[in-house]
Amino acid sequence: MINGVKLTLMIGPVVPIPVSSDILDALDSVQVTTASGSSSGFQLTFKLSTRSLLHTVFLISGGASIPLIRVVLIATINGIPSTLIDGVMTNHQVSPGPGKATLTITGEDMTKVMDYIDFSGIPYPAMPPEARVALIIAKYSFLGVLPLVIPSVLIDLPIPTDRIPRQQGTDLAYVKSLADEVGYVFYMNPGPAPGTSIAYWGPEIKFGVPQPALNIDMDAYTNVESLQFSYDTESKTLPIVFIQEPNTKAPIPIPIPSEVNPLSPPLGIIPAIPKRIEPITDTAKYSPIRGVLIGLAKASKSADVVTGTGSLNVTRYGRVLRARQLVGVRGAGPAFDGLYYVKSVTHSIKPGEYKQNFTLARNGLLSTVPAVPA
């Protein structure tokens, strides 16, 4: 389909298998979006002829008789495979036309499976949040879902004689609510092996080994097609957490500056000054530690005042740019060079073309590192 890029498409009920060459040849375009703080989604568009096998493979298998159709898409670049999506189909759309009929398949990652059934009322006696999350994720091991649960610094072990936590809503809604209580995030990353996904429940990681740098305005070393930056100081807020003094029940305000947030280490030397105060009044019913964690999560969400948007050609970049990881930027000038957190990536694949649109973010100007990996 593309020089240097090999696509592998796997489809099937519960356990996906590689599709035939006829179906892969009919694949006209692919779009996969991965973003921080939300589920990943995909859209596959096929050319549909009158005698195409797609009528049988998709339109029949997508019916009520088989409720779960898996889709796995793998891009192999320079011999290195990268799973772009591991999810389930949610919608089929046929656009008829003389010689131009298309079949469009849309879907979401494996978190969609966790949102089908309401399990409200299931008790979890004497179990901290991380144990509840691990137990819930274990239900989906038959789909290749592997848990990666980071214990919270908040140790909240409910005593059964006092209260027994009970699930509210679907597995996805309950796991996300437990993450919000301690300032964590929950999402699924496809891979590393085909047919597996990592269910991550923990702090939003903004540190680690960065991906190769995005180079702009560097002549032969330029590997992005476009890259623009914006600096928005109006969006930053200063969360104020209120906790109760145990004896007098008097509210005690605690400001939470984002600059000392362990969940969001600084990627820029000069942060923006918050222009608004955001009181968080519902933290009074929690312990001081839990209240501070909620405040840290709020501060982290508003700290990213520098945003970069751009696009790149994957064959020129030499690999797939991954969301929810760090990446370096070079050639944008002293104020904007350095490390960034990749907030979102959209893969757009067509015959002879593989491009990515991306969004970067960090909390201030000027780089905190003298150089970034090339």
Structure description:
- The chain is mostly beta strands and about 375 residues long.
- The chain folds into 4 domains: about 5-110, Beta Barrel (Thrombin, subunit H); about 115-200, Phage tail protein beta-alpha-beta fold, CATH 3.55.50; about 210-230 and about 305-365, Baseplate protein-like domain - beta roll fold (Phage tail proteins - horseshoe like beta roll fold), CATH 2.30.300.10; about 235-305, no CATH class.
- Helices cover about 15% and strands about 40% of the residues.
- The protein has 6 helices and 21 strands.
- It has helices at about 20-25, 55-60, 130-140, 170-180, 290-305, 315, and strands at about 5-15, 15-20, 25-35, 40-45, 70-75, 80-95, 100-110, 145-150, 185-190, 195-200, 210-215, 225-230, 235-245, 250-255, 270, 275-280, 305-315, 325-330, 340-350, 355-360, 365.
- The strands form 4 sheets. Strands 1, 2, 3, 4, 5, 6, 7, 11, 12, 17, 18, 19 and 20 form a 13-stranded mixed beta sheet that branches.
- The longest helix has 16 residues, at about 290-305.
- The mean pLDDT is about 85.
- Return the structural class: mainly beta
User: How much strand?
Assistant: 35-45%
- The low-pLDDT segments are none
Ends distance: 28 Å
- Number of self-contained structural domains: 4
CATH topology of the largest domain: Thrombin, subunit H
Order of helices and strands: EEHEEHEEEHEHEEEEEEEEHEHEEEE
Figure out the total of helices.
6
Main beta sheet:
13 strands, mixed
Radius of gyration from the alpha-carbon trace, in angstroms: 23 Å
Gross morphology is: flat
Highest CATH level, the class of the largest domain: Mainly Beta
* Helical residues, percent: 10-25%
* Name of the CATH homologous superfamily of the largest domain: Trypsin-like serine proteases
- CATH architecture annotation of the largest domain: Beta Barrel
Count of β-strands: 21
